[in-house]
Amino acid sequence: MSDPILPLLLAMVCVLLVLGAVGAAVPRASRQAVGFVGAVLGGWGALLALLVLTLDQSPASLALPVGPPGMTLHLALDALSGFFLLLLFLSGTACVAVAAEATESPDAAPATLAGSALCLAGSVLTILAADAVTMAIGLSLSGRAIWATGTPGRARAWQLGVSQMAALTVLAAAVLCGGATFAAIRPHPTPFLFLACFGPIALAGLVPFHGWVIPAHQAAPARAGALLSGAMQPLSIYVLLRVLLDLAGPAPPVWWCWPFLGLGAVSAVLGGWRAAAQAVQVDSILAAMTIRQTGLAAIGIGFALLGRASDLPTLTSMGLAAVLLLSLGQALCGTLAHLAAGAVRQGAGSRLLAMLGGLVHPMPIVTLGMGAALLGWSGLPAGIGFAGIWLLFQAVLDAPRMAGLGMAIGLGVVATALAVSSMLAGTALVRLIGVAFLGRPRGPRAAGAVDMAAPARPGFLVLAALSGLAGLMPGAALLVLAEPAIRFLTHDGLGVRSSGLGLFPSTGWSGYLSVPLIAVAGVVAGCLLALQRRRPGPPPRVSPIWNDGFAPPPAWLPFGEPLTQVATAGFLPPLTRPPLSKLRMHLPRLDRLWALVGASAAVLAVLAWIGLA
Amino acid sequence: MSTLMAFVAQVLHLLVVMVAAPTLAGLSRVLADRLAGRDGPPLLQPWWELARLMRKQPVIAENASVVTRYAPQLVLTVTLVTAMLAPGFTLGMALAPLGDTLTIAGLLVWARLALLLAATDAGTAEGGVAAIRASRIAFLAEPALLLVLLGLSALAGTGNLDAIIDGQRDGGLVNGAAIEMAIAALAILVWAAVATPPLDAAFSGRDLAMVHLSDDVRRVVWFTLVTTIAVPAGIAPPDAGPLAWALGLLAWVVRLTVASGAMAGIGLLVGRTDARRALGVAALLGGLALVLSLAGAGPA
Questions:
Q1: Residue A449: left (phi > 0), alpha (psi -120 to 50), or beta?
Q2: For A453-489, what is each residue's pLDDT tens digit?
Q3: Which of A164, A269, B3, B47 is most open to solvent, judged by the fewest CB atoms within 10 Å of its CB?
Q4: What does the domain layout of chain B look like in residue ranges?
């Protein structure tokens, strides 16, 4: 069944390449037509991927008699590729459909259109690749395509460097493993495969390779930023899954899981912290949230590896379910949020939070989309992010017990990182929505903002609806979309325990039942509204705000005194100086939080020494 | 328990919570004032205040958006759903399968974030500063709550609140030290949650009444959670009849009264302590409880 689909997908890559080649040269008048063709193509691609997932998951492969001298390119299609192809096409279609209408800066648009098509082509090639050379070509092409759209500068160069490094590490690992094709590597995995992870890790923005992510998102136009966050991040997660859980065979070394758990925990907290406390631009908050999302996915990969190494298939499938759900959330919400940020940049003239404010009134559609995206990223129930974090918490509970206090402390640290990270995501949501979209405008451009152009709205709203639907029914999303991929990776037919109603832990009958929960909330809210309808009190009176004695703004300051509204600072307590610098200078006056961390570490060390486990 | 009885129990539970919420708020106020040597307001004062607010005309800021308009409904809805998931007088209510601890924590976060957003909505200085202050308090409280709940789930082998309480009732969860730490952390969290006033500056009239009612319900939920997990004595088992329910109701009322007396006493002792300092201890205890429960016994 997959056999006819693979050539179709290959043809699509070719069309996208042609589109990328001619996109830059298309005259202004027919640019919309090109965008339309791109959107239709992407939609078809998504449908094909859905076909692979629902109808048949038997792997198909194809060898192309082209490529570098003396080589043939190998392509393959299985359930794992099908899942990520679906994400890629969803994100790409939305980008093309929304951004073909947005004339962000007139001269940059054609290059961006071409870049998006080429990036999509490269990403599809990466996912279809069945040998390291094809994968490297795809990674390199997509990275180069994004590079071509950005504003010149160091950030863009870093982005290019990181994507080329990803291609190189994949190639190098294959060379060290002694074979280019995956079919040759799979029976005899060697530890060298771990080398192949460094590039994708950097491309996904995992700490310590996260430095390039925020500047690159700022330098890229909104559409390329959306692809960088909504397509390239899931793409790197795909490469990691392919290498670590497919090619590395059934028994990877145990230590492989620790870098992922540790770096994932650090990234989840650091990304959330950047988003909630440090970033002052809309784009940089979103990029920081992408880093956080990468961290969460890395924790999921770590749990999957831990489960495989310690022979706990439930843990593996729990971790994989979390990774796939988080990737789905990233593809939907990352794309949506960056497109909304592009609309804000264009319609309100700035991306500095301190220049925005009150955008909900002139830009209701964009506000809705941004709200949906942040809900999907944060850890709030009925958002898809909550489902992912919930699965990760279940994985903590499923992890091997009786493995000593060291293991328990490691798991405790990961759980703490998850908890802190979900709090930070909520704070970032309040900070971005509360400062930029609610309140009063902080400048003339924000007061005169215009909403997204009407032709761009349908694609945008469909994406928002999809992310809402996925959050509402994460169990169904897992069952329909992710189950085949999990079965493919776990080999033993052990899928996730989920139903249309919600998600269940590995044992027990009760879990996160999103659909009944929303139904109950709906009934309660309906009763409240009916009560209110029945006995309507006095109608509300709208009046000017009382601002603690600040006079209404004078004529020469139409937006009032800016200092009467809070801005971006202060939502979290400051935690900037590293603890050591304080230790050296005034030892007795330790910062309380660091004292707390130190105290807990000391108690744990004592417990470990006593040998409590 | 038959499905019908489970539904009856659920509705009864919700009604009891709705009646208990303002009364308990009044009781807390009376107890705090009496302990401080003041006369204090009458016990049913919160009821009169709610009734007065319901009659008043709400005033909405010019600049307010749909967030301010619907936040009170949202907060009350979410809080009531949370209340329905926390068993008070009997186990095995109709919505017990939904009572996942992490979900309950997520619902509490929903209510908090909705109020934060509403506080920033009008664009006043006071609202923004209040939002920032509240968000700084949550910095430690929220992770601590998640860790405590995860620790309890690890101890009980399930994340379901009903099952956790049932395990406690059947002779206690196995790991003594961990559960005591978890309960201590939970008690600190309850104290901090009850001691911080709700973010209600953006509302008036009926909207304010709804926010105050949600705050009262939230207090009942917190007190119920911590006392039922700590001392589940008296709570009716899943298949009990009305007689056991009556007993469970009595035990619940006693638990709530004792809890509010204890909170008033603590409030008198510590005075106006910065909640964040106590929350740090709660976070530490929560983390330790989780590590101990992961390291110690539990389903292997």
A1: beta
A2: 888 888 899 999 999 999 999 999 998 898 889 988 8
A3: B3
A4: 3-295
